[in-house]
Amino acid sequence: MPHVVLTGSVPMEELFRSLRPIMIRKDRDILRTNDAFMNAGKTSILIESLAVEAGVKTSFLALVSSRDDGVVVRLYPKLEVEKTEGVKRILAEQAKQILTSSPGLSIGETNLSSYLE
């Protein structure tokens, strides 16, 4: 499962307010995020995401959830999603955006390191 752990401390409400839509267009491919939703307990954020690659659309939810050592950015686990290059790149771009807006965080465990460069 593609994921990025960001270690450190950041209030989830602050992180939620800092999220901005992502839009990447290259040739005919489009990677974007839309609306984000925080749960009532303020422990998780769902982000509507879309990857269009070679004319094939993949809609999915990115999940940012808190954990003891920071937050993790990954696919919402209840949905079956093909882990395409575009899907992985959206997750990595979301993690980079969070890192930029929350300087107290750093990259921990991940299997997307090549997308974070």
Explain this structure.
There is one protein chain. The protein is an alpha+beta fold. The chain is built from 2 helices and 7 strands. The chain has a 7-stranded antiparallel β-sheet with strand order 2-3-4-5-6-1-7. A hairpin with a 2-residue loop joins strand 2 (23-26) and strand 3 (29-38).
Overall outline = globular
Proportion of residues in β-strands: 35-45%
Instruction: Note the total helix count.
Output: 2
According to DSSP, the number of beta strands is: 7
Domain module tally = 1
Low-confidence stretches: none
The end-to-end distance, rounded to whole angstroms, is 19 Å
Main beta-sheet strand count, sense and barrel state:
7 strands, antiparallel
Structural class by SSE content: alpha+beta
Radius of gyration over alpha carbons? 13 Å
H and E string: EHEEEEEHE
State the helical fraction: 10-25%
Keywords:
7-stranded antiparallel β-sheet, 7 strands, alpha+beta, about 20% helix, about 120 residues
Task: Give the gist of this structure.
This protein is α+β, with helices and mostly antiparallel strands and 117 residues long.
What's the topology here?
Blueprint: E1 3-7, H1 12-18, E2 23-26, E3 29-38, E4 44-53, E5 56-67, E6 70-75, H2 85-101, E7 106-110
Antiparallel strand pairs: 1-6, 1-7, 2-3, 3-4, 4-5, 5-6
